[in-house]
Design a protein that fits this description.
single chain, 270 residues, alpha/beta, Rossmann fold, seven-stranded mixed sheet, 29% helix, globular, binds S-adenosyl-L-homocysteine
């Protein structure tokens, strides 16, 4: 991600501006660290007590750091300032919850880095390029994980449907969202590669796992005026890139964002 975007909570003036920035060489977004790194950190940590992680100041500080590092999507940042990220991770990792880092959530999966959550939502907010959207509308998320991003999206949407293929994580996320009274959110245990046709179309589609290409089902389920943001294998077959798809009345337009590194999108359920 570029380290020198304009400050002051502004969006790029247009999608083209964002896309041309995105096409410049940039650092790789790494929402998920390797399990080895995460497990090493877990061993170093003791269970936190009395650290004041519930305080709004802790979340606000995280958001200020994200802003200082170039995050510009104020709605996303404000939503992140309202969601207690430490309640989505194991207590042994809670002290790290407000660092800009991914953390293990079990079954080899991780909670995405806050800066990546903010950037993905920023792409969704840019809308079709000619205007900034005020609201994400009806959202489909693929890859619920522990439910953190779904809880952030819930603050910005009229409805969130989030799909997870690993049952223990689907159940973990359901417990988190219930405990925190997250509104307007429905979790679905299933293969997100198929999307969820009964609730389609969606104004916003966001994926936290990347496959070889964007599944056709997601494109079919994107509303006119809607936008999809997902990682997919880069054209040269090396690594992943963010793919942004807008649906216009006369068809789809695809834009490429920055280089990223998400966990793989896998088919089937477990
Ligand atoms: N949204 C999470 C990130 C979870 S990591 C957050 O807030 O941090 C990505 C998740 O995508 C993993 O839990 C993985 O199991 C899930 N996933 C991978 N392929 C999937 C598929 N086909 N359908 C649904 N979920 C999938």
């Amino acid at each position: 991600m570029t380290k020198t975007p304009p400050r002051g909570g502004r969006f790029p003036a247009s999608l083209n501006e964002a896309a041309s920035k995105a096409s410049q060489p940039q650092a790789t977004l790494r929402p998920q660290r390797t399990l080895n790194e995460a497990a090493r950190d877990q061993r170093l940590l003791a269970v936190p007590t009395g650290l004041g992680l519930d305080s709004a100041t802790v979340r606000q500080r995280m958001v200020e750091r994200l802003r200082a590092d170039g995050a510009r999507c104020e709605p996303a940042l404000q939503a992140m300032a309202s969601v207690s990220r430490h309640l989505f991770v194991d207590t042994a990792l809670a002290t790290q919850a407000y660092e800009d880092t991914s953390l293990p959530i079990g079954l080899g999966q991780t909670i995405s880095k806050p800066s990546v959550v903010a950037r993905m939502i920023e792409w969704l907010y840019l809308g079709d390029g000619s205007r900034q959207r005020g609201h994400l509308g009806r959202v489909m998320e693929i890859g619920t994980g522990c439910g953190y991003q779904a809880a952030v999206l819930a603050q910005l949407s009229s409805h969130v449907l989030s799909i997870e293929r690993l049952k223990p994580l689907h159940e973990l996320a359901a417990r988190h969202l219930r405990a925190q009274h997250v509104p307007r959110t429905q979790l679905f245990y299933g293969d997100g590669m198929l999307g969820y046709a009964p609730r389609a179309p969606y104004d916003s589609i966001i994926a936290a796992a990347g496959g070889d290409d964007i599944p056709q089902a997601w494109l079919d389920q994107l509303a006119v005026g809607g936008r999809l943001v997902a990682p997919a294998t880069a054209a040269d077959g090396q690594g992943q890139v963010l793919v942004v798809v807008d649906r216009f009345p006369d068809g789809l337009r695809r834009t490429l964002g920055e280089v990223v590194q998400f966990v793989p999108l896998k088919s089937g359920i477990k």
